[in-house]
Amino acid sequence: MSDAPILKTADLRAKVTDEEIEILKGVDLEIRPGEIHAIMGPNGSGKSTLAKVLAGHPGYEVTGGSAFFDGQDLLELETDERARSGVFMAFQYPVAIPGVSIANFLRTALQARLEDGDELDLFDFQDILLERMELLEMSPSFAERAVNDGFSGGEKKRNEILQMAVLEPALAIMDETDSGLDIDALKVVARGVNTLQKERPEMAVLLITHYQRLLNYIQPDFVHVIVDGRIVRSGGPEVALSLEEGGYREYRQLQSTVSAA
Amino acid sequence: MPTNEAVQDIGLDDYKYHFITEDEPVFRSGRGLNEKVVREISAQKGEPKWMLDFRLKSLDIYNAKPMPTWGGDLSQLERVLGDIFFYVRPQERMERSWDDVPANIKETFDRLGIPEAEREILAGVGAQYESEMVYHSLKEEWEAQGVIFDSIEDGLRNHPELFREHFATVVPPGDNKFAAMNSAVWSGGSFVYIPPGVELETPLQAYFRVNQEQMGQFERTLIIADEGSRAHYIEGCTAPVYSTESFHSGVIEIVVKPGAHFRYTTIQNWSNNMYNLVTQRSLVHENATMEWLDGNLGSKLTMKYPSCFLVGERAHGSILSIAYAGNGQHQDTGGKVIHAAPRTSSSIVSKSISKGSGRASYRGLCKVYEGSTDAKSNVECDALLIDEAARTDTYPYIEIDENQSTVGHEARVSKVGEEQIFYLMSRGMPEEEAMALIVRGFIEPIARQLPLEYAVELNRLIELEMEGSVG
């Protein structure tokens, strides 16, 4: 785990497009292959924004700083290019694509990764898909359903995890900002991440979560606390445990001290 | 898509294709519509007197009826109609050469992967279709079962009684101005008869027949599905129909006798200068089922509302339609269901996609006559807007004279959302691909009803149409 970082951000700043106020006010983060990082923070701290900015959501604009992914300037890449280079974001609330089956969706996503003129072999694809579904203990019929159309919270998570399994990203960003209520969905995510990381230990994971609960199921290597658009504390799993007890209050106080200074 | 100039460049009256030989006089009617033209058409076809009388009576009705003011914009139509030939002999139309077909049409054929032999047919320049052999063996099989699948002219000639018994009973000339026009000048189209109890596995495809008789500007199709029969008829295909004419007005009549099950599929993609005004109607008897599957792409204006007149108890009608309105196009389409017997049921599912300055209108009628107890009808309209400028509107007419009936109507308009595009792009799909996948998903409920090769072509065609719609 002493390789070069797969993701490195320095003083990363961003705002909502068409608005003035910065939400990210300088985020420094280094993630190496195989590491699991958790980003925790109170509501409105910017943690979900960080996920979206890294994935290239058009609703956000980077106002300063840098982000490098696997040596490339991430901010220069379009959303789809980032995905093809190995960034994957599991959505908190993924949208439905009616009439498009999960299998068709994934086939299109894999096809997009091939060189122009290369055709994805349908039998190969079927093999990959079935093998991945088996690994995740999913029924093959699940892939025939239209993407997120009428899915329960748990099914949506299952779908995100399946996509992650098939697309094999170098960095998986899990946006679980406020999924604290749905314990079932949480377990799906945790089991998925653990299974896939066991299989591909080089995969780096960035978990974005409000609650400590998810971390009962996934053991992070590093925990960062983000408050008001900045990482105010980084450390090992013990940081999350102290949050469990004290909440974010002390960080808020810390933050106001910093702001006042 | 062809520009108007590209289409006009070919010229309807380009003299170099007028080969006049002594033993095959070429016939071409004068411009515009009048009694002389109608008489000439009838004489050219060697028709019985009753048909000539029918045509002349229809011409009177046509002249008496005002131009419709509802639906699409027909204000330029009078001018167009004064300028067209109402009858051109099929042989003559085939004289055009492949070299005359505009490059953009050829390119579309290329990108759709349409085989050479078919391209020529589709462009109206071909004479032979390589799968003619396939068609012949099918035809023999059908004939052995008593199925008639002929040109409308041969139908009238060879099956005069059957023809006369049903012709114009479903769409009488007085129905609307364009039905009257078609009744006066019809030429080309199919005559189909399925005997009682005969079930056909393979769809009857008009496609196989077009090499013999070019698809006409005023085609007329008459289909009779006799008691307990079951069949599927497919008209047209998704490749662009290239035509120098700028006006198309067909009439399709279908009689579905008791217990029969008939499906009529038409996917048409007209060049952008075309007015496409079609009357498609079926008469559905007791325990019978009629299904229309109707796809409309291209044209300047399409007005087309496939209809089911449910006249027998427990008759069922279903209309599935898909329309794509690109720049400068207006698709005014939908469906009509008329419940005139107890326990009849119907469903209309209409989907439209509008892009750029395109406009898709759903216009539908659900009428339940008194006495049609326990009639059930459900209408679903679903419109997808690709960008901000695109337009869609819904005109559902519902008339219910029977209290003991259930009619449901649901309309939805959706825009391709930023979140959907972002989701797909975050999985590695380029923006155009993402857009195309969303649209494919949108039309999937209709595409899955199509035979596979048509579904594939429809998808590819819409993707081609969508190109350049991003960014």
Strand-helix topology:
The complex is a heterodimer of chains A (261) and B (471).
Chain A: E1 7-16, E2 22-31, E3 36-40, H1 47-55, E4 60-69, E5 72-73, H2 79-85, E6 87-90, H3 102-111, H4 122-135, H5 153-167, E7 171-176, H6 183-199, E8 204-209, E9 222-227, E10 230-235, H7 237-246, H8 249-260
Parallel strand pairs in A: 3-8, 3-9, 6-7, 7-8
Antiparallel strand pairs in A: 1-2, 1-4, 4-5, 9-10
Helix pairs in contact in A: 3-5, 5-6
Chain B: H1 4-10, H2 35-44, H3 49-64, H4 77-82, H5 90-93, H6 103-112, H7 116-122, H8 132-144, E1 148-151, H9 152-158, H10 160-166, H11 177-185, E2 190-194, E3 204-205, E4 220-225, E5 230-235, E6 247-248, E7 251-256, E8 261-270, E9 275-284, E10 289-298, E11 301-304, E12 307-310, E13 316-325, E14 330-339, E15 345-354, E16 359-368, E17 375-385, E18 391-400, E19 405-415, H12 418-425, H13 431-447, H14 452-466
Parallel strand pairs in B: 2-4, 3-5, 4-7, 5-8, 6-9, 7-9, 8-10, 9-11, 9-12, 10-13, 11-14, 12-14, 13-15, 14-16, 15-17, 16-18, 17-19
Antiparallel strand pairs in B: 1-2
Helix pairs in contact in B: 2-3, 3-11, 9-10, 12-13, 13-14
